Amino acid sequence: MASQLRTSPLSDVDSARHARRAVIASTVGTMIEWYDFYLYGLVAALVFGKLFFPMQDPYAATLLAFSTFFLGFAARPIGAIIFGHFGDRIGRKGTLVATLLLMGVSTVLIGLVPTYDKIGIWGAVALTVLRMLQGIGVGGEWGGAIAVATEWSKFNKRRGLAASWPQFGSPLGMLLAVAALTITSWVGTPEWFESIGWRIPFLISALLIVVGLYIRLGVLETPVFQQMQEKKQISRTPVLEAVRGYWRQILLTCLIRTGQQAPFVLFTTFLLSYGTKNLGLDRSFLFNCVLAAAALSLFTTPFFGYLSDRIGRKRMYLIGAFAMLAFAFPYFWMLDTQIPFLVVLAILLSLPIHDMQYAPQAAFIAESFPPSVRYSGASIGYQLASITSGGPAPMIAAFLLHTYGTSTAISTYIAVIAAISFVSALFLRDRSQDDYATNEGWVREEGTSLAPRVASPSA
Questions:
Q1: Most CB atoms closer than 10 Å: which of 158, 188, 225, 357?
Q2: Are 88 and 375 in contact (CB under 8 A)?
Q3: What's the pLDDT score for residue 447?
């Protein structure tokens, strides 16, 4: 059902208050969804291979565990298409409530799945299905969260900072996931953690979902979407509209994320497997390092979002991509020394360097699409990278390490994909100064008319 139109415009004071609440709601909701998503990846790196694929050798079990991790990424474009359609058709708010529910229920059920010794291969099957549902939920989350946070006139000059707050939900979710696993691991023995302990953080997600729903249900629909409703500019088929009219922006959005998303997965999820199995580092030590890096990211994410408002979205992104390329080899050199100080330094530097791309990315991508297809276009481009970059990253890293026996191969992989991000960002236009609220400039530039393909919200 379509969002209800407001009968009168908001005052400046009310508009500013609702804009701030929208940013908070987007950030909290994104934090919860990323908590759920990261939790799976962290546990997959630690125990899923042993619990759900015990008949395999350690290398094969690790690959199989990471393959279920990949399926969550592969499902994200599906979520982008499904929820992108409804987000551009019926509204951002209602769609985000649905993604939160889907993600939350899937996560709680993962915490209840019996392991191989109880139901055999069906445990892995259930895990895979639930992971895919997680991916669909996350796939529909990001584009709507960014739209809800930025489609307010209050943020016209500070859109980079406003859009960085939903991005801030990612390290906050990571912080909560790592903290939950760390505290749980302290409670009992390693054997207890592998049998029962790992389930507790998944079950805690039920409480987080209640909080997220309470906050999101109190948010108004964005003024930009309300304006499209009033002018009857709602597209009948926003996904097709986005693919047909803005395929270039979708492709470039996917490519600029290549050198951001894959390194992040390696810096957080793959690190735990590599550090414990190949370097012999203590699991709790690595957890604490990632926890500290995520805490540092809470400051660097909004900072680099703010900086993108000052020096330009595109310039900030290019600096970040180049920094990632330069960091690719020093990162593993420091880890491989196994010297605690250098290991800590490598992990602490990894996420802030990643944030140089991640923070301005939200506004950079959202500004690349007109409001009538913003949810669809931004979501599809953003989530396609889950298949090409983030999803296969730990499997590629495990394969490279197994094949060449050296982390230099993984560093080369990071350097190559960082270069892809840098070159792709050169071709994506910086629209930070364009009109973010209307379709008119887009219609003129693309040489097509949106009018024949729009309808009223009730159509």
A1: 357
A2: yes
A3: 44
